[in-house]
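Hi C.,

You asked whether I'd gotten around to modeling the 344-residue construct. I have! Everything is below, sequence then structure, no commentary in between.
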Amino acid sequence: SNDLDNQNNEEQKLTIHCLEHYLRSLRISQENFITDHLIELYQKYCIEAGSNTDLCLKILTKFLQDLFEHYGNIFQNEQKHHKNEQYLISINRPISNLNQMSLSHDFDLNMCCILLNIFQNQLPSSYQILWCSNTSEEDIYLFFSRIRTFPSLTFVIMDIDKMHHRLRELLLNEQDLLTRQQDMHGRVFYFSRELTTGRKGLREFQIPNRYKDPNESYIHLMNLFNEYHIVPPQIQIISGQAGIGKTHHINRQLKTDRTSCFSINDKLNLSLLVSSFLLFDSNMTNNNPSIFFNISIHSPFESLNRTLFSLFICGCLNDRNSGLVFSLPHTQSWKFIIEVPYSD
């Protein structure tokens, strides 16, 4: 009986821990949920093992209603849109060899700055961005459902040109349905090299020069963190030619016994990263958490850039395989030491 009680207590702690990460990832206003209140609601709306799907959804709905009613306004910096808007952001980049067009590094610093600034006075959340290079039918339907449900928010669709043609047709059909919709929906931006404003409902978005400026974008991001009362992560980049003592410097001066280390080579295992971060966070006993990323020259840089954007700017990582979410804390700064490969 004691063993069963201990197991139930551990399961409850783990559930609350994962729930806190999920709620933080939403970046809703006043989202520093009190753990005691979450435990109280968790116990009140506990779902019995073996319950059917309808009952589970009903209980979950009541739980969320109670949770959000307790905290009032859900979103911070809501934007009032007076008309439905769908914009095309054309990706025009010089191509050196027309026979070998490469899409492998579309998401560079320039694109990162534009993506951040598209949200204007909103700090972007992961659920507002659809990365089409790794998406499913269900993801597309759910994303457009969000667009229809939250007319005060901005949404962005990336990597359209990299989709399987069947999924792309499905997405463009959803875009067409959105165009015909009379009710207000969220503002949508489509990033593409191949789409044109010839599609009904799409207007070209003229990108202001300041949207591409890394320095202005950084200042804008820091102002947003401050406005949302979020402590930004500390990021330290280590780079240089081989043989100058980078690893020695990191091991002697930067890493501690409590630093969690990750090597990223030819593949990025997001599931492992999310579960490792959650475990590291649950076992953390100090106020100075640090992560070390050792990035190989063979790393998949585009997916890595997307992951780092999600982690550092959206503040979370989502594992589509397990449904787990890791979110950086809002009141404590994690330190990230990143050793990047040297290039001339």
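If it helps when you're writing up: The first helix runs from residue 2 to 26.

Thanks,
B.
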